[in-house]
Amino acid sequence: MKYRSVFDIIGPVMIGPSSSHTAGAARIGRVARSLFGREPKWATISFYGSFAKTYKGHGTDVAIVGGLLDFDTFDEQIKISLKLADEKGMKVTFLEEDALTDHPNTARVIIGDDQGQLELVGISIGGGKIEITELNGFELKLSGSHPAILIMHNDRFGSIAAVANVLAKHEINIGHMEVSRKEVGKLALMTIEVDQNIETPVIEELKTLPNILQVTKIAD
Question: DSSP letters of 121-158?
Answer without folding.
Answer: EEEEEETTEEEEEEETTEEEEE-SSS-EEEEEEE--TT
